[in-house]
Amino acid sequence: MTTPKISRRSFAATAMTALSYSRVMGANEKLRMGYIGVGNRGDQVHDGFLEHGDAVTAAVCDLRDEYMDFAIKKSRGATPRKYTDYRKLIEDKEIDAVAIATPDHWHAIMFGEACLAGKDVYCEKPLSLTQKEGRYMVNMAEKTKRVVQVGIHRRSAKFLQEAAEYVRSGKLGKVTVARGFHIQNEWPNGIGNAPDTAPANAKEWDAWLGPAPMVPYNKNRTYYDFRWFYNYSGGQLTNFGVHYIDMLRWALGKDSPKSVAAIGGKYAVQDNREIPDTLEVIWDYGDALIIFCQYNANAAPSNLQGSEMEIRGTLGTMYLHGNRWEVVPEKVTDNIFPARTPLDRTAEKAYNPSKKTRIEPAGSKGSADTAFHARNFIDCVKSRAKCNCDVETGYLSTSATQLGNIALKVRAQLDWDAKAERFTNNDKANQYLGYEYRKPYKLPS
Ligand SMILES: NC(=O)c1ccc[n+]([C@@H]2O[C@H](COP(=O)([O-])OP(=O)(O)OC[C@H]3O[C@@H](n4cnc5c(N)ncnc54)[C@H](O)[C@@H]3O)[C@@H](O)[C@H]2O)c1
Predict the structure, then answer these.
(1) Rounded to the nearest whole angstrom, what is the distance from the C-alpha of residue 351 to the centroid of ligand 1?
(2) pTM of the predicted model, to two decimals?
(3) Rounded to the nearest 5 degrees, what angle is found at the Cα of 284, between the Cα atoms of 281 and 286?
(4) How far is the CA of 441 from the centre of ligand 1 (A)?
């Protein structure tokens, strides 16, 4: 697939006709799924749906034949149709819903076309490459009344639902700071320094780039490693960062930040990535800071207790790990410490705060398996209810990370007007909210 062979107008016409094929499903009916992008994550998402007997693999689409064959083999005896051109899959009237697990720069276009064709959509995170695309996707889902699940799968994990509820109920006291950490030691070579070469398959490279600028082929820009290049993704901030910001926003009950600042650089690895390997981003949500830390260094557990996230309240701290969370209560000091006088110091020595806390330790264990998120999507397609990570939720978490990347780019603290969806103190920053697509690509309408 290179440039579109059918005109946008005729495609839109097909899409609008297809809208009328979207059907009301009964509780016992099987959801006919089409998968666009069955690489690393697409394969996991497919597995998540295969866990459920009422989801059937009707079609797969990828630029790589071998990935499609792999997906077809595990389709529980179904005989999925195989498409290299995603538009053919979207046109397929025997498909109810599509799962999009292509690189980030493709999400918005594929999502728009799927919605217009009357398909419900499971779209991987980050929702979009840019803030403007994300807003477009929210509007498109609303306009076409589509059920959307964004692939921030922690939202469907019961133990994390309990964690969010615990914090939101006020048990942790007043929360003023929460941090997410991604620590991975890629020193010294990172993804290496693959040279630009001629692509083995020019058509595939053109289709892979899609709306992104045409640049010489480089192996590191493509499968999986595209994450480290800004034309296709936003680095660890929009990769793991989206999961963490989403969890922290959820627990703290926050929507959009008022301000964002970022600082970092490429300090640890010598490879051809564009994104920083070391980064801190701070969002001001009005009465609390959310912070994302990406370190390319030794990841030994320290004061973080090896956790991915921490939420610090006045009564205790919640540590969130991959499969559990725990609350460590604040020790009560009755405001007599730290010692200021010799008498205080004597009292401090005699005082044993270890048993005195205002809340009890708490915690829970569980799994954030993608299958739970797939289950929620299937149920919502049938009931037309909102998914656990509906498009607006996915948008708010994705856009926060995109604003962080813009702050890093313009090297400034940026004030964000969430209503106008503009920065109010930096015109240059506003230019990075979207980008011009390579011709003839455009967002479907
Ligand atoms: N929810 C999670 O925890 C999670 C985990 C990993 C990745 N992801 C997200 O999933 C998406 C894919 O990441 P990945 O690691 O699987 O990348 P990947 O490179 O392994 O897979 C992407 C697949 O998309 C296919 N593709 C690219 N352009 C296409 C096109 N025009 N038409 C059809 N197929 C096309 C590629 O051939 C490839 O197989 C990203 O948005 C990523 O952020 C989410």
Answers:
(1) 57
(2) 0.94
(3) 170
(4) 19
